[in-house]
Amino acid sequence: MATQLVHLPEVERLSPLCIRILGGNPGKFSLQGTNTYLLGTGSKRLLIDTGEGKPSWIAALKRTLEEENATIESAVITHWHHDHVGGIPHLAEAWPATKVYKNEPEHGQLDIVDGQKFTVDGVSLTAVHTPGHTVDHMVLHFAEEDAMFTGDNVLGHGTAVYEDLGTYLKSLEKMRHLFKGRAYPGHGPVLSNGPGKIVEYIRHRQQREDQVLQKLRSENPHSGSGAESKAWAVMELVKTIYHDVPQSLHPAAAGGVVQILHKLQNEGKVSSDEDDKWRFTGRSTL
């Protein structure tokens, strides 16, 4: 995957109101690294996310603020994962007056509620609770650009992982109606058509769900035969559905397949046995 990634500068001005600073933590799942965003035009700026606390990130942030003749007034955290919160102690050390906002806050942090507004000179943000990737996940509508900071619900490359598929899809559906412009993701490059990418995500998830259902139904006996359909282990499904994906990524893909199976189970279409094997048991619209 790394060879497919476009190069992103460590610091880049993305618009007159937004500068991206990479977290210095590239990897298989973090892509070019965690995106952190410095917003505003005045002497007091707002920061979105903090990376995982790499020295290169805090150094780049300090340099940028010196060049901008600015300081950080507040930081808004999209969700609890380490690669988004790890730099918070650096903020407290370098800028002790910084207010840190996070849904389901930890000690010393301030809560974020759905619909909460955040403003600095030139920038107005509205927080929207969009669980799925994590239960505390927030996205931020950027009024001046009719854009959205999508956290890890939508990435600039590939697709996102999630804790609960049904909840995640509801959040994507909510998000796509809230803006018309860019998506500023938690990882990867900016997406020029944010709502269009979200529609792609929804369709992709539906295609994967259809593939799982089709595979489970493929050896389902004809109605009235009295025999049960074939039971599939999760990794058996992964190896057939993700046959074109490197095997090293199959464990991650398995997590997605399990989420699909749980969604289908809740809909009465599949069931699992004591050996954690899955079979088709209901009707589908395929």
Automatic annotation (TrEMBL):
<feature type="domain" description="Metallo-beta-lactamase">
    <location>
        <begin position="33"/>
        <end position="187"/>
    </location>
</feature>
<dbReference type="InterPro" id="IPR036388">
    <property type="entry name" value="WH-like_DNA-bd_sf"/>
</dbReference>
<dbReference type="GO" id="GO:0046872">
    <property type="term" value="F:metal ion binding"/>
</dbReference>
<dbReference type="GO" id="GO:0044550">
    <property type="term" value="P:secondary metabolite biosynthetic process"/>
</dbReference>
<dbReference type="InterPro" id="IPR001279">
    <property type="entry name" value="Metallo-B-lactamas"/>
</dbReference>
<keyword id="KW-0378">Hydrolase</keyword>
<dbReference type="InterPro" id="IPR050662">
    <property type="entry name" value="Sec-metab_biosynth-thioest"/>
</dbReference>
<protein>
    <submittedName>
        <fullName>Metallo-beta-lactamase domain-containing protein</fullName>
    </submittedName>
</protein>
<comment type="similarity">
    <text>Belongs to the metallo-beta-lactamase superfamily. Glyoxalase II family.</text>
</comment>
<dbReference type="Pfam" id="PF17778">
    <property type="entry name" value="WHD_BLACT"/>
</dbReference>
<dbReference type="InterPro" id="IPR036866">
    <property type="entry name" value="RibonucZ/Hydroxyglut_hydro"/>
</dbReference>
<dbReference type="Pfam" id="PF00753">
    <property type="entry name" value="Lactamase_B"/>
</dbReference>
<dbReference type="InterPro" id="IPR047921">
    <property type="entry name" value="LACTB2-like_MBL-fold"/>
</dbReference>
<dbReference type="InterPro" id="IPR041516">
    <property type="entry name" value="LACTB2_WH"/>
</dbReference>
<keyword id="KW-0479">Metal-binding</keyword>
<dbReference type="GO" id="GO:0016787">
    <property type="term" value="F:hydrolase activity"/>
</dbReference>
<keyword id="KW-0862">Zinc</keyword>
